[in-house]
Design brief:
alpha+beta, Immunoglobulin-like, 2 domains, 7-stranded mixed beta sheet, 5-stranded mixed beta sheet
Length: 467
């Protein structure tokens, strides 16, 4: 006689990670194809993006050093002298991290080769608002931790703030599936609410977030593509073009605690409650590297994700002379023509509050935490400011109109005016390094009207190599 499977039995099984490790015999036949991760993925060739979780190394300024913790001499190349007198090629990688890579379109061997070749921050990706048909699917594989094979941590993708997810796809491991080493899982989303969000691994989330398994994701509104007020791109479904823009830039804030990263590399226990932000980053870089180009862009593959070019082995390609930024691929420089509207998508997954200030240009806050600035009675609650106060886990959508080109506002003959965008909290803006550099600081470059062509992808830099 077939045993009837009750709702209570289902909840017992679906209540935690035990689902992924329980024997398949514990499940009824109809759930074996639904809840066991490996059963799902063996049939899942249908996805929009394919991400991999692993570990690796990336670069932060080695000067000034932070005790024995930074630069980490375990980093490749393993040299005792990674100080300011060392050649650039000997200072490439200083900090051990966890993270995600975009492995969409790779062969199995290329994908496997990306273990120990991670990036920070993780790739930006974006989706269209759900119209009743366009589900969005991300497949995740866990390549394991090369430097720490003793750690068999599972990974997930948790879309922070996503309102419509069912528990099965939430990424919080106690109520949904987590992905063990060597396994796969496909997340399915129906994004109904436009705006700017974050995503991160939710397994041992304090450690995995701080170690770098974080980035920014946003949802484009259904209104996109219609001409309203002369704009065809919008932050929200505003109906009047008030959130229309010409260019957009994603600005993801994160932090590095050197001792914690050193501890994970050296098999030492870290008390994450004693966290200290030694480095504060925008898009995985600190100033002045925030101003440098993106790593070479694969434009054809950037339909849903800002995709860096890869070599024949699948490893990230970097710019000649900027080899130290191989695993810090994202620029933070904001460029525009005079008179254009620019959308800034801010998201903060550091532990500290940030005070992001755009000196000399006012920004209009049109969205917060993926919600338009409209009161329940329809009142416009957007406001104009030059400083955004952002707590941990918050996002803001801000639009500014580029001022007229003056030719004298810090342009120094470069053909653009310069405005500074920085964190007014001094320790995050400078990291107390020599010359006040090394923190959450970038620039807005305003060119004469008509100088720059239409933006082809988010965060486009004038000096990017594109293929």
């Amino acid at each position: 006689m077939k045993k009837q499977f009750s709702r209570r039995d289902f909840l017992k099984l679906a209540g935690g990670a035990a689902v992924t490790v329980a024997g398949a015999g514990l499940l009824p036949q109809f759930l074996k194809k639904t809840l066991v991760a490996e059963k799902v993925v063996t049939a899942a060739s249908d996805y929009d993006l394919f991400f991999a979780g692993t570990d690796g190394w990336f670069w932060l300024p080695p000067d000034p050093p932070i005790g024995v913790y930074h630069p980490d001499t375990y980093g490749p190349p393993t040299l005792a002298d990674q100080g300011p007198s060392a050649p650039d090629e000997f200072k490439n990688f200083t900090t051990y991290i966890f993270g995600f890579r975009n492995v969409t379109g790779m062969t199995n061997s290329q994908r496997a080769n990306q273990q120990f070749k991670v990036q920070h921050n993780a790739p930006f990706f974006w989706v269209d608002q759900y119209d009743g048909t366009n589900e969005f699917k991300i497949q995740l594989t866990n390549l394991g931790l090369h430097l720490r094979p003793d750690l068999t941590d599972a990974h997930t993708i948790h879309w922070h703030g996503f309102r419509n997810v069912i528990p099965f796809y939430d990424g919080e491991p106690h109520g949904s599936i987590s992905v063990p080493v060597g396994e796969y899982f496909t997340y399915v989303y129906r994004p109904r609410d436009p705006g700017t969000y974050m995503y991160h691994c939710h397994v041992e989330d304090v450690e995995h977030v701080t170690m770098g398994m974080t980035s920014l994701v946003f949802v484009r509104p259904l209104q996109n593509g219609t001409n309203i007020g002369g704009f065809t791109k919008f932050a929200y479904n505003d109906g009047d073009g008030s959130t229309g823009y010409d260019r957009e830039n994603a600005l993801f804030l994160s932090e590095i605690w050197a001792k914690g990263h050193w501890g994970d590399a050296h098999i030492q226990e870290s008390d994450w409650s004693t966290f200290k932000a030694d480095f504060s980053l925008i898009n995985g870089r600190v100033h002045p590297d925030t101003l440098l180009p993106n790593s070479p862009i694969n434009l054809a593959a950037s339909t849903n994700c800002l995709t860096t070019q890869t070599d024949s082995n699948g490893d990230l390609v970097t710019n000649s002379g900027l080899e130290h930024l191989q695993y810090n691929p994202h620029s933070s420089l904001i460029t525009c023509n005079a008179g254009e509207r620019v959308l800034l998508r801010f998201a903060n997954l550091g532990f500290r509050e940030a005070a992001m200030t755009l000196a000399g240009i006012k920004m209009r806050v049109v969205g917060r935490d993926a919600s338009p600035m409209i009161g329940r009675d329809g009142t416009d609650t957007s406001y104009v400011t030059n400083t955004i106060l952002m707590g941990a886990g918050e996002s803001y959508d801000c639009i500014f109109e580029a001022p007229a080109f003056s030719g004298g506002n810090g342009s120094s003959g470069n053909g653009y005016d310069t405005y500074i965008l920085y964190n007014r909290r001094y320790t995050q803006e400078s990291n107390l390094s020599t010359g006040g550099s090394g923190g959450q600081r970038t620039e807005v470059h305003v060119y004469p009207a008509g100088t720059l062509g239409p933006q082809q992808y988010v965060n486009q830099h004038p000096d990017d190599a594109i293929a």
